[in-house]
Amino acid sequence: MKISNTIKLATLALTLGLTTSSFAQDGAMEMKKDKKMMKKEKMMMETKMVGGAEMYPNKNIIENAVNSKDHTTLVAAVKAAELVETLKGEGPFTVFAPTNEAFEKLPKGTVETLLMAENKAKLQSILTYHVVAGKVSAMDLMKMIKDGNGKAELTTVNGGTLTAMLKGKKVQLKDAAGNISTVTIADVNQSNGIIHVIDAVVLPGM
After folding, report:
1. Helix (H) and strand (E) counts for the chain?
2. Running DSSP on this structure, what letter comes out for residue 119?
3. Where is the FAS1 domain positioned along the sequence (predicted)?
4. What is the pTM for the complete model shown?
5. Measured between alpha carbons, how far is 193 from 182 in angstroms, rounded to an integer?
6. Which of 180, 188, 174, 163 shows the shortest CA–CA distance to 48?
7. Are 60 and 191 in contact (CB under 8 A)?
């Protein structure tokens, strides 16, 4: 009888131990998820400095971009291409935003030519090649690159493809012509998407 009771008590203790361990593990996992979610939410609410101006997550892509001194050429191009209302839209959009210096790397006279009214369709094609539908954060990009064994294919609004890669800890983009641009400021959150600042203009196959 004593042996039977002892066995019962041992079984109960073991069951309780396993249950407590399971609860502890579940609790730890939930806490980890909560912390990850809080970190993500905090990042989404952060303002970042771009071109000497604060970028506010509660403003849309255009409302923020017009304040960046580093993106006056991009804003002028977006206006010339009549894409302002599109990028003010609900989205969400992921925009790889070239700086003024990035545009200056293009052959002399290229920007001026693209801004001409008769070249609007070509300008639209180039600008929409910098836009991906949906909100793709740097973390998302890195996971896609890892899952793709070092490369991730991004389909742009233009219909073309950008190839995302990693160089060290920085994300790089390769365009249709094989040109490389690097993300210099990542995860600039907007009310209708996200901006990643890049140091070179990416060009679709012409």
Report:
1. 8, 9
2. G
3. 58-202
4. 0.78
5. 20
6. 188
7. yes
